[in-house]
Design brief:
Layout: H1 11-47, H2 50-79
Helix pairs in contact: 1-2
Keywords: Coiled coil
Coiled coil: 11-48
């Protein structure tokens, strides 16, 4: 009976992967800050007058869409 051999672990590959994950974590932290800022903007827009509210909401929705696309791109990088 032959024993299954674990694939050889390349230390440099592990180091590179760790560095990639650190970069991804940094991006996610930055995006988290952006999301908090968007939430603050949204709260402020609710406090403003009703006439500008629809226009402001469209801007916020657009910003969220950009943010979500950035998150998707980041998570696609993680999968690779």
């Amino acid at each position: 009976m032959s024993a299954l051999k674990a694939p050889a672990i390349n230390a440099q590959d592990l180091i590179n992967r760790i560095l990639q994950l650190e970069q991804i974590i940094k991006k996610l932290e930055e995006q988290s800050c952006k999301l908090k800022n968007y939430n603050k903007q949204l709260e402020n827009y609710y406090k403003k007058d009703k006439d500008n509210q629809n226009d402001n909401m469209l801007k916020i929705i657009n910003n969220y869409n950009i943010f979500i696309q950035t998150l998707k791109t980041t998570f696609e990088e993680v999968k690779k």
